[in-house]
Amino acid sequence: MAAIVKIVAFFVLLAHSVKCHSSSSLSAADRISELPGQPRVSFHQYSGYVSVDEKEERALFYYFVEAENDPASKPLVLWLNGGPGCSSLGVGAFSENGPFRPSGNGLVRNEHSWNREANILYLESPIGVGFSYAANSSSYEGVNDKITARDNLVFLQNWFLQFPQYKDRSLYITGESYAGHYIPQLAELMLQFNKKRKEFYLKGIALGNPVLEYATDFNSRAEFFWSHGLISDSTYGMFTSACNYSRYVSEYYRGSLSPICSKVMSLVTTETSKFVDKYDVTLDVCIPSVLSQSKVLAPQQVTESIDVCVEDETLNYLNRKDVQKALHARLIGLNRWLVCSNILDYEPLDLEIPTINIVGRIIQAGIPVLVYSGDQDSVIPLTGTRRLVHRLARLLKLRSTTPYRVWFAGMQVGGWTQVYDNILSFATIRGASHEAPFSQPERSLVLFKAFLEGTPLPQEF
Q1: Distance CA 230, CA 73 (A)
Q2: What per-residue confidence (pLDDT) applies to 274?
Q3: What angle is formed at CA 281 by the lines to CA 276 and CA 287, rounded to 5 degrees?
Q4: Rounded to whole angstroms, what are the CA distances from 317 to 37, 93, 258, 326?
Q5: Where does residue 411 rank: exposed (0-12), middle (13-18), buried (19+ CB within 10 A)?
Q6: Which residue(s) pair with 76 in the sheet?
Q7: What φ, ψ does residue 55 adopt, rounded to 5°?
Q8: Which sign, positive or negative, has the C-alpha torsion 195, 198, 200, 203?
Q9: How far is CA 58 from CA 54, 55, 212, 291, in A?
Q10: Which of 354, 402, 433, 445 is buried most, with the most CB atoms less than 10 Å from its CB?
Q11: What are the catalytic residues?
Q12: Tens digit of pLDDT for each residue in 78-125?
């Protein structure tokens, strides 16, 4: 821990050595006057770069949207997508819970945007994702969870220099998938930093379909496939005994794929079909599409993401020169902006390091945690996530203060929830995918609002 504190201290000093500009001039320079094809809105938008290492010329790109109404009274929410290597701008902001979605040559309003409830900060992290860049391409090599957490911490410190009005604001961190690694590690760094100097007013974290404990999360996939009729009884038997999914991924990333694992995965891939979206097994796929999801979560498989059609439009939109100019973005060492980075060399074995124990320490520090699952996701199925949350509650000796029950949104069942000692919550979002705010926007917004307010999910409509 002492080493971590020293590293943080070093980067804090580095972060504050940014060239001197007034914070007001910096934020004004990042103001977006209007995005091409954008409907008229009353809230302000900003985007641009924040340096995390002046010497090495490493900078992270952000997109910030103020709350629709009374932003001065609303909390600040940082959103992180996973991958590792996928864009919070292209996926989170423009496909999930941001104010706009690309349509044709322009943008349309998302009526269930999360900036109805908060000021939302989307961060393209780590370096090499989206518009985030380093002057030296070697910075894209050997990136890992520790580097990412450290950079994200420095980013926030320097972003607050540009937006000092948000420095003392209640802060929440939310995200999905591999952000189950990013978020707990960032939150723990914040808590460690705060012991020396109070700088982050962290009030809670929310993790959507997160990777928290590699074996449990991945090996619940076989049961999900079988229970939804996607694989045969015989393949299910092999997928649970001869070679489970965590073993397959472990062998794949060590370059030692065994014949039995190769055989099992070939059967699973054939039976589940490339025409079934693994991120939402009930949703039709977009045909044709050239997009694929994270290589870490689905190695060797070209699987269409739930929102591939939206992502295709996002890809086209964010590669327009007029859009990049409006966003104050530039491509460094790249020809095109991509949804998921093809230049980032992320340490794949970090996937195997559990973060559920870090979540436990965050709870012990008094920070509320919400873990939620879109219940149609076979990539990180709700069954494994629910087991992990329940096991953590037992380990921390937390009482069930809200027994497992349904919750409502839009006069329909929104999902199910259970709460432990009013600090650890689990919820499902009914009918939702791996990217819940895209597939169930209204239900996701209801969940998000309750999370920010610290209130129970609706028991009736």
Answers
A1: 47
A2: 85
A3: 35
A4: 10, 13, 42, 12
A5: exposed
A6: 119, 171
A7: -60, -45
A8: positive
A9: 7, 8, 28, 27
A10: 433
A11: 177, 377, 434
A12: 999 999 999 999 999 999 999 999 988 899 999 999 999 999 999 999
Residue 116: Cβ within 10 Å count: 19
Task: Give bridge partners of residue 400 from the DSSP assignment.
Answer: 420
Instruction: Look at the block and give the residue holding tokens 């349309």.
Output: 108
Dihedral in degrees, nearest 10, Cα atoms 421, 423, 429, 432 = -150
Place of tokens 């994200």: 152
Spatial distance between the Cα atoms of 99 and 119, rounded to a whole number of angstroms: 11
Q: Are strands 369-374 and 424-429 parallel, antiparallel or unpaired?
A: parallel
Q: Which residues of the chain have pLDDT under 50?
A: 1-23, 288-295, 300-308
Residue with tokens 């990539």: 379
How wide is the angle at C-alpha 152 spanned by C-alphas 147 and 157, nearest 5°? Answer: 130
Query: What's the full length of the chain, in residues?
Result: 461
Specify the residue for token string 């999801």: 293
Res 21: pLDDT: 38
**What is the per-residue pLDDT across 198-246, written as a single tens digit (0 to 9) for each?**
999 999 999 999 999 999 999 999 999 999 999 999 999 999 999 999 9
What's the burial of 229, exposed, middle or buried (CB within 10 Å: 0-12/13-18/19+)?
A: exposed
Do the beta carbons of residue 213 and residue 388 sit within 8 Å? yes
Separation between Cα atoms, residue 393 and residue 158, nearest integer Å: 36
For each of the domains in the chain, give its residue range(s) and CATH number, in order of start: 2-212+315-326 (3.40.50.1820), 214-310 (3.40.50.1820), 372-453 (3.40.50.11320)
Please give the pLDDT value at position 19.
37
> What is the dihedral sign for C-alpha 358, 341, 292, 285?
positive
Instruction: Give the H or E element holding residue 47.
Output: strand 45-53
Q: If you search the block for the tokens 């921390």, which residue do you land on? A: 396
